[in-house]
Amino acid sequence: VLDAFAGTGLVGLRAATLGARVPLAAISPGMLAIAARRAQRRKLRVDRITVDLTHADVSVPGAPFDAITMVFGVRYLDDPSAVIRRLSALLSNDGWFVIMDFVEPGGSLLSRLAAFYFFRVLPRIAGTLAGRSDLYERLVTTTHAIRGREQLEQIVRDAGLSVCTTRVMGFGLVVGIVGTIPEGTIGLPRTEAQQR
After folding, report:
1. How far apart are CA 119 and CA 70, in angstroms?
2. Could you report the per-residue pLDDT of 71-102, keeping only the tens digit for each?
3. What pLDDT does 196 receive?
4. Residues 85-89: contacts with CB within 8 Å, 24+ apart?
5. Residues with Cβ within 8 Å of residue 88, at least 6 apart in sequence
6. What does the alpha-carbon distance between residue 88 and residue 166 come to, in Å, rounded to a whole number?
7. What is the C-alpha separation between 90 and 92, in angstroms, rounded?
């Protein structure tokens, strides 16, 4: 399981707890060091790979992977479909690409109340407590850029994947999608670096 944009490794460490071989891939050595300390405390083995996953010729040792996870990373990408497409080339033909991110919820009164809290109240409280309001303003801005569930599903489809499962969580604020390489496709095109 490749944990893409792994940050401090919360998702990858959970996969390792379940017995998966997990490379944690991210651009920040500092975040990966935190993940390594967490893994060590839990006696888990994970590989750390410092890599810019947005690069056109991204290559990650251990490919192809049975699954790739990208949790709360889509909103920070300039062209998420292009990045997901390139990473999908690292996926085995029957593998899963699991994407989860914040979205603008729609519908019920409860979802609208949760959105009010998430977009208006939380950034002010957390920004004040952390002394970094810019981080929470960026969270709001980037989440608005994704918009809703349908738009996140379209990003996955534009990457060349089939959406096989979508799950809405957190009063509509979080959407999880499992994408697969379309049936009959023999992998997505790999770059020269990925073929090495």
Report:
1. 22
2. 999 998 999 999 999 999 999 999 999 999 99
3. 45
4. 85/158, 85/159, 85/160, 85/188, 86/56, 86/58, 86/191, 87/2, 87/4, 87/53, 87/58, 88/159, 88/160, 88/161, 88/179, 88/181, 88/188, 89/187, 89/188, 89/189, 89/190, 89/191, 89/194
5. 68, 97, 159, 160, 161, 179, 181, 188
6. 18
7. 7
| Structure tokens that stand for 138 in this block | 């960026």
SS3 of 85-103: the string is: HHHHCCEEEEEEEEEEEEC
CB 26, CB 32: distance < 8 Å: yes
pTM across the whole model: 0.89
DSSP codes, 67-82? EEEEES-GGG-SSHHH
Residue 86's φ and ψ, nearest 5 degrees, are -65, -40
In the block, tokens 């920040």 appear at 28
C-alpha torsion 77→88→156→73, nearest 10:
-30
